[in-house]
Amino acid sequence: MDFQEAIDFAVAHEVPWPRDPTCDPARWGVHHADPAPFNRLRGPVHERGGVSGVIRAGGSEAAAWGEPDRADLTFSVAKTYLALLAGLAHSRGLLDVNERVGNRVPGIGFEGAHNGQVTWTHLLEQTSEWSGTCFGMPDTVEHNRRVSHDPKPPQGAKGEPRQLQVPGTYWEYNDVRINQLSLALLHVFRRPLEEVFREEFLVPLGGGEGFAWRGYDDAWVTIDGQRIPSVPGGSHWGGGVSISARDQARIGQLLLDGGAHQGRQLLPAEWIDRMRQPCAVAPFYGWLSWLNRDGAMFADASRESWFLVGAGGHYTWIDPANSAVAVVRWIDPARSPGFVHRVVRALARGS
């Protein structure tokens, strides 16, 4: 299969962010849209590479470009990594997706008439409506947030508090609530999530070089006498996952293969299947992943396709219809449909 046209297109359409976040801070990141004083970075960030990526077809690497082994920030792709950790915890009997989170991890903000209703499923599908402050960030800073693949128009200005709905009845892309999920998972595993993810997924898949999952400067908790960082599910306010394109492709292959790798089940196939099921009130979304069932996300991609997406032009595309995984990084998001179109055409020519 010849993916050169898709590669050339991606390289020619790099996201218009500076490669060094310190040289032109106003053009780097997504935090600028937040109301003050929350429109600032709270965790470390670092220089990025150029457009890079990996395409796998039939279980093997078919193409790679840029710096595929460079560990770069990947923003909200990390949300899906939290879903994988939740699946690992579920497989070990450490949580039940239908239970109320406060019953499993009391004392961290899942109490009361409203927050006490929140289940793990609500957090995974972003319908929790959790209300409160997580490491100094109020959930309201993300009220009325608009993200590119959300068809629902915002109900007000970004950061303008709105009326909360019953948990499970309203979908909102909210990074504060994602960070609250991460905190809950930290209390479930009782060890750094960075270590768990590396040891349970990346190392068995043959990866992990350069991988890091960093927290905010002040987001630390003490569990069993150990001071541990609580990591964010993205890099909205800094920190987050730094990972290579090849490792992202390895994770994508694991999802394509139903959680199995070389005869070992790293995650239950049932969990992977559930991640792809549409949310009742947001059918374009599964469990911390984006779906393409109606073709609204990418018209040229198969309807079985699903995506891990991060700000700054990060996409991990899992395509069961073509037994393919494609990772592209630092592409201008407005140009991502052109990349998908060219990959689909190459796959069709090669089949």
Automatic annotation (TrEMBL):
Domain of life (superkingdom): Bacteria
GO-annotated molecular function: hydrolase activity
UniProt region (Disordered), positions on chain: 144-164
Keywords: Hydrolase
Domain Beta-lactamase-related: 68-328
Keyword Lipoprotein belongs to the record: no
Gene3D superfamilies: DD-peptidase/beta-lactamase superfamily
Pfam families hit by this protein: Beta-lactamase (PF00144)
Protein's name in the database: Class C beta-lactamase-related serine hydrolase
Organism (species): Ramlibacter humi
